[in-house]
C-alpha cells in the first residue's frame, strides 16, 4: 500500500477563500500548507547555532568525466519499431511503463535534496505574493497600472503556491522544510513586480535543471505539473512589468546550487528543527549597469539595482519612468505585450560586474557560508535557452571586471541572449550542455546573477 503522505501529494485544496470568485467552491480535501497572516520581514540578527551546508561523512574529490555511456547511441531512430510491443498500440521502452504501481517518494539523496530546495522555493513565493499585496495600497498598485482584478491574480498565484508546497511536502514527509521568515528589498510596486519576475525565473529554471535527473520519475511527473504553473506565473509578472512576455524559444535550466545561491539571502530565519540543504552558496555577483526595464531607455541604467544576485531593478522616476508613458515603443505599462523601441541589451554591450569574496554568512539564521573552489576569474558564463557560452573577463581589480555581451543564436533567427537569463564569473570555459550544466560549479568564482537582457 502506498503511504498516506504520498497519496496526499496527488491531491490538493485551496487554503484561502476566493473573494468574488465566479466558480463554485472546491470540495473538501486533504489538509494543505499553512501561511501565517502576519509575520516579520526583517533581517536575522541572532547567532547561528549551525553553520554550513549539510554534508555526508565522506566526500569525494569530484564528478569524473566518463565520456559517452556505452550503448547511448545504439538506437537507430529510423522510424521503425525495433522491439516487440508489450501491448497493442504500445511501443517497447520507457520508465515506469511496465505496470509497476507508482510510489510518489524520494528515491535518493539527490531526490530529497532537490525536492527540499523546491519546498523552500514554493514557501517563499507563497509569502512573497501575500507580502506585496499587504505592503502596498490600492493606490500604489493603480499608479503602477494594476487594478483590482490584477491584484486578485497575484492573490490566486499565492494560493497556487499552497498547492505546490503541500504536494512537495507530502512527497518528502515529516522531514520536509517548513515555512520560514523572509526579508525583501523592494520599496515600490514596480520593484516588487521585478523581484517576483526574477524570483519565479530562477524558481522555474532551478527545477528544469534537475527535473530530468531525478531517480523518482513519479515525483518528476508531479513536479512537472507544478512547474508549468510557475512558468505561467513568470510570464504574468513579465506582463505586469511591461516586458515582452516570452522573448525566447527555450526556457533555461540551472543547477540547484545556483538557485539556492539566489534564494538563500532572502530567508531570514527558519524553525529550529528545519531540514538543512546540501547545496553550495556561491559569492554574490552584481551587474553594475543592469538594464532597467522601468526606464524609457533601460539599457543606459547605471547602479539602478536594489540587491546583488537577483539584481532587482530600482524604480525609475520622473521623465525616465516608462510605466505611465503611453508612447508606442517607450511604454512599460502592464499589457499583454510590448515591443520596445530601445532594447534593454544588445550584442557588443559592455557589462560592468562586481563580486563578493567568499566567507559571507547568508540564508536561514545566517547559518550558510558562501564559498568557491574556483581559481582566478577569467570568463563570464552566459547561460540562456539551450546555450552555455563564455566571454573573456577583463579584471580591473580583485572584485571588479568588465565583459562584452556576445552575439550568438540558439538557432538562426533566435538570439540566444534574451529575456531574464543567468551569468556567472568563472575560472575556465568548459564545454557544457543543458543536461550537464552542474559540472560548471567547481569553476564558479561568483554568481549567478540574473541579467535582464530583454
TrEMBL record:
Annotated organism of origin: Aspergillus wentii DTO 134E9
> InterPro entries, per this entry?
Rds1 (IPR039254)
Specify where the region named Disordered lies, as residue ranges.
Answer: 20-100
Q: Which UniProt keywords apply?
A: Signal
Give the Pfam families listed for this entry: Ferritin_2 (PF13668)
Does the record carry ATP-binding as a key word? no
According to the record, the signal peptide region is 1-17
Biased composition range(s): Polar residues: 35-60
Name of protein: Protein rds1
Amino acid at each position: 500500500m502506498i503511504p498516506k503522505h504520498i497519496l496526499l501529494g496527488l491531491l490538493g485544496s485551496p487554503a484561502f477563500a476566493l473573494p468574488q470568485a465566479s466558480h463554485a467552491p472546491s470540495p473538501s480535501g486533504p489538509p494543505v500548507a499553512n501561511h501565517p497572516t502576519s509575520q516579520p520581514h526583517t533581517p536575522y540578527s541572532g547567532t547561528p547555532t549551525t553553520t554550513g551546508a549539510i554534508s555526508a561523512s565522506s566526500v569525494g574529490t569530484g564528478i569524473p568525466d566518463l565520456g559517452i555511456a556505452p550503448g547511448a547511441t545504439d538506437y537507430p531512430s529510423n522510424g521503425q519499431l525495433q522491439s516487440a510491443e508489450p501491448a497493442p498500440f504500445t511501443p517497447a521502452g520507457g520508465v515506469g511503463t511496465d505496470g509497476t504501481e507508482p510510489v510518489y517518494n524520494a528515491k535518493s539523496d539527490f531526490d530529497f535534496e532537490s525536492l527540499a530546495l523546491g519546498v523552500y522555493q514554493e514557501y517563499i513565493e507563497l509569502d512573497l505574493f501575500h507580502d506585496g499585496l499587504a505592503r502596498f495600497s490600492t493606490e500604489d498598485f493603480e499608479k503602477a497600472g494594476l487594478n483590482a482584478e490584477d491584484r486578485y491574480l497575484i492573490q490566486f498565484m499565492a494560493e497556487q503556491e499552497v498547492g505546490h508546497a503541500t504536494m512537495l511536502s507530502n512527497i518528502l514527509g515529516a522531514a520536509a522544510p517548513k515555512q520560514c521568515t523572509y526579508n525583501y528589498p523592494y520599496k515600490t510596486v514596480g520593484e516588487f513586480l521585478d523581484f517576483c519576475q526574477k524570483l519565479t525565473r530562477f524558481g522555474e529554471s532551478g527545477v528544469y535543471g534537475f527535473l530530468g535527473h531525478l531517480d523518482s520519475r513519479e515525483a518528476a511527473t508531479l513536479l512537472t505539473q507544478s512547474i508549468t504553473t510557475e512558468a505561467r506565473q513568470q510570464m504574468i509578472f513579465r506582463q505586469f512589468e511591461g516586458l515582452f512576455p516570452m522573448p525566447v524559444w527555450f526556457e533555461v535550466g540551472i543547477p540547484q546550487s545556483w538557485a539556492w545561491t539566489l534564494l538563500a539571502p532572502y530567508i531570514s530565519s527558519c524553525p529550529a528543527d528545519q531540514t538543512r540543504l546540501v547545496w553550495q552558496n556561491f559569492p554574490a555577483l552584481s551587474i553594475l549597469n543592469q538594464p532597467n526595464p522601468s526606464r524609457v531607455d533601460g539599457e543606459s541604467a547605471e547602479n539602478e539595482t536594489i540587491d546583488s544576485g537577483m539584481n532587482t531593478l530600482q524604480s525609475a522616476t520622473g521623465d525616465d519612468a516608462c510605466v505611465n508613458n503611453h508612447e508606442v515603443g517607450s511604454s512599460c505599462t502592464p499589457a499583454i505585450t510590448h515591443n520596445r523601441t530601445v532594447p534593454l541589451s544588445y550584442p557588443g554591450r559592455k557589462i560592468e560586474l562586481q563580486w563578493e569574496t567568499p566567507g559571507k554568512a547568508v540564508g536561514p539564521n545566517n547559518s550558510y557560508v558562501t564559498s568557491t573552489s574556483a581559481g582566478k576569474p577569467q570568463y563570464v558564463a552566459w547561460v540562456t535557452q539551450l546555450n552555455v557560452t563564455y566571454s573573456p573577463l577583463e579584471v580591473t581589480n580583485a572584485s571588479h571586471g568588465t565583459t562584452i555581451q556576445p552575439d550568438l543564436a540558439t538557432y538562426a533567427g533566435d538570439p540566444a541572449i534574451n529575456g531574464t537569463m543567468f551569468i556567472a564569473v568563472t575560472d575556465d570555459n568548459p564545454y557544457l550542455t543543458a543536461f550537464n550544466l552542474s559540472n560548471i560549479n567547481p569553476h564558479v568564482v561568483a554568481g549567478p546573477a540574473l541579467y535582464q537582457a530583454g
